[in-house]
């Protein structure tokens, strides 16, 4: 059975003026159920993650400052949040959701987290509305528990996965692949195993051609046995923070490429939703829901 991590705590901690980007976390499950794509029984509510797993990816000193709300004012500004206990609780729930989704993916082929994709969080920093790196923690969990030997991180958010790249820079068993807007945030990028920096206004055809080319060569070269996919929809032309020009159909075809390769090579995949900041909330929800629909069509 398809399993999807969702917890209402995802949507509550932000001040009213910042709630719009979070609204999608409520609307995605509602839309999927409304369209009959999934049922309520497909969702699970994660509990807060245990500390022992957090420090697989993050330095204990950083986690201590985070959980005691003792980051410096400079560190807090870098996160983009006002640091609160409720916000930390949200992060812990998101990370646990991704970690549990790893086990569901091993059993069922694919599993989702409605939230997650917190790829700007590095080993000892938070940044860009990311405090803990959910997929990096999930990957370390799989390696520690010997549930995977070689992991591929596919990051197709419009922003480079700098935190993920930094966390795994010396880890031979994890290959990090980020395809993103080159001039966009973060302005000081880390080095992934493979970075594809795209020019402004890249459109569907060029994007999909590059993705096909690199997906094939990466999987054939590294032969992963588990995949993490960050499926940000801030690649859409309507996105306020993205500088690419994909259509909703182009975004859906992007997902098809990823899922078809996973099916072809028999690779379990955990999917976190990442960014989406279009002026029209409908564009965000439609594009994210297409990712769920495509995974179900291709993998289940």
Automatic annotation (TrEMBL):
Single GO MF annotation: histone deacetylase activity
GO biological process, one term: epigenetic regulation of gene expression
InterPro entries: HDAC_classIV (IPR044150), HDACs (IPR000286), His_deacetylse_dom (IPR023801), His_deacetylse_dom_sf (IPR037138), Ureohydrolase_dom_sf (IPR023696)
Domain of life: Bacteria
UniProt keyword Hydrolase present: yes
Keywords for this protein: Hydrolase
Keyword set includes Hydrolase: yes
CDD domains: HDAC_classIV
Domain Histone deacetylase: 22-288
Family: Belongs to the histone deacetylase family.
PANTHER family: HISTONE DEACETYLASE 12 (PTHR10625:SF19), HISTONE DEACETYLASE HDAC1-RELATED (PTHR10625)
Name of the featured protein: Acetoin utilization deacetylase AcuC
């Amino acid at each position: 059975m398809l399993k999807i991590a969702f917890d209402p705590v995802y949507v509550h901690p932000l001040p009213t003026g910042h709630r719009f980007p979070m609204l999608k976390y409520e609307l995605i499950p509602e839309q999927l159920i409304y369209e009959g794509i999934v049922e309520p029984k497909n969702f699970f509510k994660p509990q807060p993650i245990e500390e022992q797993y957090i420090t697989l990816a993050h330095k204990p000193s950083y986690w201590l400052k985070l959980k005691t709300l003792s980051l410096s004012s400079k560190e807090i500004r870098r996160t983009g949040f006002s640091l609160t206990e409720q916000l930390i609780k949200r992060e812990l729930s998101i990370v646990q959701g991704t970690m549990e989704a790893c086990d569901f993916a091993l059993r069922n082929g694919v599993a989702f987290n409605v939230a997650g994709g917190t790829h700007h969080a590095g080993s000892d920093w938070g940044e860009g509305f990311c405090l803990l790196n959910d997929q990096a923690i999930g990957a370390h969990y799989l390696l520690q528990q010997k549930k995977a030997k070689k992991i591929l991180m596919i990051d197709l958010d419009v922003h480079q996965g700098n935190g993920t790249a930094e966390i795994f820079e010396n880890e031979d068993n994890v290959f990090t692949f980020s395809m993103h807007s080159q001039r966009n945030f973060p302005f000081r990028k880390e080095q992934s195993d493979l970075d594809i920096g795209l020019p402004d206004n890249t459109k569907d055809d060029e994007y999909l051609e590059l993705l096909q080319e690199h997906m094939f060569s990466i999987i054939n070269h590294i032969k992963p046995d588990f995949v993490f996919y960050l499926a940000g929809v801030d690649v859409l032309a309507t996105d306020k923070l993205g500088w690419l020009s994909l259509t909703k159909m182009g975004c859906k075809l992007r997902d098809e490429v990823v899922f078809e390769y996973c099916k072809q090579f028999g690779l379990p995949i955990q999917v976190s939703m990442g960014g989406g900041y279009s002026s029209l909330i409908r564009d965000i929800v439609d594009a994210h829901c297409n990712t769920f629909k495509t995974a179900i069509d291709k993998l289940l």
